[in-house]
Amino acid sequence: AYIKVIEEKNKDINAFLEVNKEEAIAKAEEIDLKIKNGEEVGALAGLVFGIKANINVEDFIISAASKTLEDYIGSYDATVVKKIKSEDGIIIGINNMDEFAAGSSTETSYYGAVNNPAAPGRIPGGSSGGSAAAVSAEMCDIAIGSDTGGSIRNPSSHCGVLGMKPSYGAVSRQGLLDLSMSLDQIGPMARDITGITLALDTIIGYDPTECTTLKWDAPNFTEIAESIKGRKKPLEGMKIATCREFREVTNDEINEIIDKSVEKLEELGAELVELSFNHIDICLPTYYLINYVEFFSATRKYDGRKYGSRIEEVCGEEVLRRIQIGSYISQKEFSGKYYQKALQARSLIRNEINKMLKDVDLIVGPTVPKLPHSLGEKLEPMEMYAYDVLTVIANLAGIPAASVKAGDVEGIPVGLQLQAKPQDDGKIVKAMAAFE
Ligand code: GLN
């Protein structure tokens, strides 16, 4: 059924870069047979996945939507992909994205922009825009994306689906082509909470081959979501904060929808408080300085010898900007001036957000401060970066964060963002399940 939808709609939406029809059908038939024979099947049996083009899947082209890697074929499965396959998830294909995940609109893909199925003619957000569009257009059940500064939550918000960036270290990044390794995190996108929790239960966990993964006894997220079903006040006992400064940077029409969502959370039993976050002004400069330096470092392997072409010779404008600025500011003579400063600023942001989260269970607000622009509209870099102001905080602090559909402005979806303490991913899941 999904292949039919892809064949029908992908020309217009451009969410998938590659689909393996035969293998997906063969796998589905194999699972079917197992079920018919009464054999045991995995937790994801029959669920269909799209994987972002920066996560290695054996035998697919893993280009990160860049000309640099247009001929690079995944020679192994990333840890998350291994886990999905071992639970009988079906990998149907590879999703379009911003080149090397550096963007918020999916317009920088070497393979062309993605059309937003929920708001045709507009960007789907990014950088996991192909993933969100594929889920929204019902081309698959679940998409696995990466989030460095919002790339799962931003397109989820614009396409009206659910998306979650787990705590830093909760999911192995082994096999992910990094954008910025201290910020990157892999996570799921789906149309309902069950899709999110089944994926989380599969992909979260310590990975001995990835030194930043947490040794963490994670809860069963599907059970958390199931446990509140049918309850009238499922959020009773939860303290949820809104934040003045998030409101100030956000468009009025979005704020109106968020206000209604907050009322709904209260009706669901949550206690509401208002808090203040004083470092909103330094979030974007801090994020981009760190991103540029780490990305510059990550791209040194694309020198044209082992993998594909020399990146500087074939990449797009935004990727080149990051490489050049990253190379400039990480020069020895600037030691202590930019990157070190950014790390200090990052500590301030992390400390403040963690302090806020000492008193409350969740912080909520808009996921993205403005509506997605029309395809083809040319934005200046700073205008593009402005989409990220509310999402980069979670990556800088390493905390879990998710986006759930809050409503729409004349049909254009708007997402509510939920953030919690590191390893309080379960609280986010609970609130998402209640809110959905
Ligand atoms: N838009 C942000 C950036 O361009 C975030 C990207 C991401 O999360 N991969 O860096």
UniProtKB/TrEMBL annotation:
Keyword flag Cytoplasm: no
GO terms classed as biological process: translation
Enzyme class: ligase
Annotated Gene3D superfamilies: Amidase signature (AS) domain
Assigned EC number: 6.3.5.7
Residue ranges occupied by any Amidase domain in the UniProt entry: 1-428
Recorded GO CC terms: glutamyl-tRNA(Gln) amidotransferase complex
Catalytic-site annotation from UniProt: K52 (charge relay system), S127 (charge relay system), S151 (acyl-ester intermediate)
PROSITE patterns tied to this protein: AMIDASES
Keyword Cytoplasm: no
GO molecular function: ATP binding; glutaminyl-tRNA synthase (glutamine-hydrolyzing) activity; transferase activity
Keyword vocabulary terms for this entry: ATP-binding, Ligase, Nucleotide-binding, Protein biosynthesis, Transferase
Short name of one Pfam family: Amidase
Catalytic activity: L-glutamyl-tRNA(Gln) + L-glutamine + ATP + H2O = L-glutaminyl-tRNA(Gln) + L-glutamate + ADP + phosphate + H(+)
InterPro entries cross-referenced by the UniProt entry: Amidase, Amidase_CS, Amidase_dom, AS_sf, GatA
Quaternary organization: Heterotrimer of A, B and C subunits.
Its job: Allows the formation of correctly charged Gln-tRNA(Gln) through the transamidation of misacylated Glu-tRNA(Gln) in organisms which lack glutaminyl-tRNA synthetase. The reaction takes place in the presence of glutamine and ATP through an activated gamma-phospho-Glu-tRNA(Gln).
NCBIfam families the record matches: gatA (TIGR00132)
Family of this protein: Belongs to the amidase family. GatA subfamily.
Protein name listed in UniProt: Glutamyl-tRNA(Gln) amidotransferase subunit A
Species this protein is from: Methanobrevibacter olleyae
